[in-house]
Design a protein that fits this description.
The chain is mainly β. The relative contact order is 0.32.
Length: 113
């Protein structure tokens, strides 16, 4: 069974870059037809899809976040990462890494003004 675990700082200052890592176990991020996604949920709001990296390295982003988002991967560590630049308090959320129905536990990120 695939397991995902997010890690990264819980507090980021405004204008800085948020960086999160998703470590995958129980399966390879390069396995055919697997898609590795970042999703976030701001307090009191719904889920927001941020972007995805495919098993073959292709990457796609939400149009609303594309200018500030970068998703990369380290196949040697079986990890994929999220970077969100120029953050503001509006980026405060629980951030999840996801594959299909498999979700990480989520990590709270707070952006201080």
């Amino acid at each position: 069974q695939v397991q995902l675990q997010e890690s990264g700082p819980g507090l980021v200052k405004s204008s800085q870059t948020l960086s999160l890592i998703c470590t995958v176990s129980g399966g390879s991020i390069t396995t055919n037809a697997n898609y590795w996604t970042w999703i976030r949920q701001p307090p009191g709001k719904g889920l927001e899809w941020m972007g995805v990296t495919h098993y073959n390295g292709n990457t796609y982003y939400s149009p609303s976040l594309k200018s500030r988002t970068s998703i990369s991967r380290d196949t040697s560590k079986n990890q994929f990462t999220l970077q969100l630049s120029s953050v503001s308090p509006e980026d405060t959320a629980v951030y999840y890494c996801v594959r299909d129905l498999d979700w990480g536990q989520g990590t709270q990120v707070t952006v201080s003004s």
